[in-house]
Amino acid sequence: MSGKISFFKSVEDYVDKAAAFTDIPEGLVAQIKACNLVLQIRFPIRRLNGDYEVIEAYRVQHSHHRLPTKGGIRYAETVDQDEVMALAALMSYKCALVDVPFGGAKGGIKINPAKYSTEQLQNITRRYTTELVKKNFIGPGIDVPAPDYGTGPREMAWILDTYQAFRHGEIDSIGCVTGKPVTQNGIRGRAEATGRGVFYGLREAVSFADDMKKLGLTKGIAGKTMVVQGLGNVGSNTALISQQEGDVKIIGVAEREGSIYCESGIDVEKLLAFRKETGSIMGFPGSTALPNNLAALELECDILVPAALENQITVENAARIKAKIIAEAANGPITADADPILTKKGIVTLPDFYINAGGVTVSYFEWLKNLSHHRFGRLENRFQHNAFEGILNKVQELTGKTIGDRERDFLTRGGTEVELVNSGLEDTMITAYQQIRDTMKQHPDIGDVRTAAFVCSLKKIASDYISMGIFP
Questions:
Q1: What whole-number distance in Å separates Cα of residue 465 and Cα of residue 92?
Q2: 106 is catalytic
Q3: CATH number for the segment(s) 35-184
Q4: Of the listed 70, 94, 106, 369, which one is catalytic?
Q5: Distance separating alpha carbons of residues 30 and 15, to the nearest angstrom
Q6: Ramachandran region of residue 363, left (φ > 0), alpha (ψ -120 to 50) or beta?
Q7: Quick one: which of 115, 222, 302, 350 is 20 to 30 A from 24 by CA?
Q8: Spatial CA neighbour of 305 closest among 362, 366, 246
Q9: pTM confidence score
Q10: Can you list the positions of beta strands (E) in 323-407?
């Protein structure tokens, strides 16, 4: 690979570094690092001009310490076996870190979806799913795919329909894939889950005064300046939620067409509408154009959120990064050799397999919803409303005071599905960060959040293997 370290090898190196802070046996560490199953797929499709094309695709199940395995399917021209293996491995560590009971998996099809018609994309997706079914690489108790770069609810609906054609009558078949449209047994809150998880993780990380003092920052998310790279699903939702719920000031945005800066702040909602209308973020009123689409990464800011693709911060530009905190909303945006440069500069990096875990967390909730065959809140919503109504009536009776209808509605309603989902996601991100922080306190020589997060994951996965009796 031209002397360049592979993505999967860089993940293994991170694990080895973390393993040194544990007492996990060397052989067990080797088992944890290994990919258990790798499926390479080749199949032909017919193009519109009548020619045939061979499609290259993969599905990797990294770890079977818990079943089913879980991970997205991406459509991109950069897809190769090494990338899919690395992403599957990160899914194992991500699920363990946030206490989601899945092993890690990942899938990929080496195509640029923009070059194919909807009909062709559907044919490719269905053929890929067929191969997964034939090889026993999909199922609610085996391996549960989800959306990733280049895919979304539409593709997940095609996967579900194809799976059900082969598994007619299987009672839990709707749990074979997550990220589905809400009308196809999906869950409310899934679309914005990863971005919302990034916000919750950031908000928790900046809530400790001692930690922020070391960075020269004040406690709390409000007023922090942020630069976001990538306005896809994750980046746009991170920026919107951070701005609307956290009072964060977005001062820079980067996209494939370029990057912009505005010291007084960018209204993300207006920027998204502007880009939808013009096809570009460039020329947004009140903003200044930067030299290129990577220039925004080097802006001085409190928080940098790379939410595009991997390998965006490298040894070439790491020394010029001026952010105090980097939240890896994308998978692998920082190369392994750039990571020590950032750490040496005192930059805190919230690693991808923690900060973007919102997607798999809410996918877990969707899977649970599918297996229970009812939406969250359906059984308890009306009971909660009636109970709160009774309490409020008693308070009014005892105090002789009456509350307004608007306030009454707010105080007595039960939680909706999206509110319950967001509450579960918030608790997950807070709990996981506190575990990471506790690990750093126990091992002051760890030195960075990424290593501490890997230590947490390794201990949990090792505990599973030991309890299975494989490693006494």
A1: 13
A2: yes
A3: 3.40.50.10860
A4: 106
A5: 10
A6: alpha
A7: 350
A8: 246
A9: 0.89
A10: 325-327, 348-350
Question: What 3-state DSSP class applies to 258?
Answer: strand
Instruction: Give the position of tokens 């991406």.
Output: 74
Q: Give tens-digit pLDDT for 304-318.
A: 999 987 788 999 899
The mean pLDDT of 83-104, rounded to a whole number, is 96
- Beta strands 69-75 and 249-255 are unpaired
Residue 417 has pLDDT above 90, yes or no: no
Q: What is the pLDDT of residues 42-72, one digit of tens each?
A: 999 888 788 899 999 999 999 999 999 999 9
Residue-by-residue DSSP string for 105-148:
EEEEE---GGGS-HHHHHHHHHHHHHHHHHTT--BTTTEEEEE-
Tell me the residue ranges of DSSP E strands in 294-444.
Answer: 303-306, 325-327, 348-350
Per-residue confidence (pLDDT) for residue 381, from 0 to 100: 66
At 334, the amino acid letter reads I
Q: Do 120 and 45 contact (CB within 8 A), yes or no?
A: yes
The candidate with the shortest Cα–Cα distance to 246, out of 198, 285, 287, is: 198
426 to each of 238, 353, 361, how far by Cα in Å?
A: 14, 16, 10
Quote the strand ranges of 256-331, DSSP E.
258-261, 288-289, 303-306, 325-327
What are the CA-CA distances from residue 99 to residues 48, 147, 354, 358, 461 (Å)? 46, 20, 11, 12, 10
DSSP classification of residue 330: S
Reply yes or no on whether the pLDDT at 1 is more than 50. no
Closest listed residue to residue 326, CA positions, set 226, 439, 200, 194? 226
Q: Is the dihedral of CA 248, 328, 449, 344 positive or negative?
A: negative
- Domain assignments of the chain as residue spans, ordered by start: 35-184
For residues 471 and 28, is the Cβ–Cβ distance under 8 A? yes
